[in-house]
Amino acid sequence: MKQVAALFGAILMAALAGAHGLGFAAMMQVAYGAISVMALLISATFFWLWHERATPLALGMSLSWAGTGFTIGWWWLMRVLGDPAWGMEAAALFVFLSLLICGAVLHFAVIQGSFGLRGLAFVWPVLGAFAMSLGVLLFL
């Protein structure tokens, strides 16, 4: 855990130094661009693992990381392009979010076995997450 804390601290300090040198907005662009590429590389690695071992968890990880990489990459690209109106309302974004949600659902399906649950019990956290999100939207 010490190594993780040290790595986290070093990354945070580099980000803050970058924000000081480049400016906050520019450093955020660098970070979002880099994490989108790293997420897609991680997704490809998990897809390869799924191909080799055919585990549903590896497929869920691949889909989740792909959805994350493409979603963050989309937002990053929109900022780079100056936030064009067509980019914020593009239905293609739902393709990326659907990958991410599909991966999350697969995760819950695999995780439920660790709790000794069977059947469709994994659907409850998914429905709860959507209910919470909808509730916040309706409340605000």
Structural summary, described in words:
By secondary structure, the chain is mostly helical. It contains six helices and no strands. Helix 3 runs antiparallel to helix 5 (92-114). The protein is globular. The protein starts with a helix and ends with a helix.
Keywords, separated by commas or semicolons:
single chain; mainly alpha
Briefly note the structural class of the backbone. Answer: mainly alpha
What's the main sheet like? none
Percentage of residues in DSSP E strands: under 5%
Could you name the ranges where pLDDT drops below 50 across 5 or more consecutive residues?
none
Number of helices: 6
- The helix/strand series, from N terminus to C terminus, equals HHHHHH
User: How much is the average pLDDT?
Assistant: 93
Number of strands: 0
The end-to-end distance, rounded to whole angstroms, is: 39 Å
**What best-fitting shape do the alpha-carbon axes yield?**
globular
Question: How large, in whole angstroms, is the Cα Rg?
Answer: 18 Å
Please give the share of residues in helix.
Answer: over 70%
Q: How do the helices and strands line up, and which of them pair or pack?
A:
Elements lengths: L1 H21 L1 H30 L2 H25 L4 H4 L3 H23 L8 H17 L1
Write a brief structural summary.
By secondary structure, this protein is mainly α. It has helices at residues 2-22, 24-53, 56-80, 85-88, 92-114, 123-139.
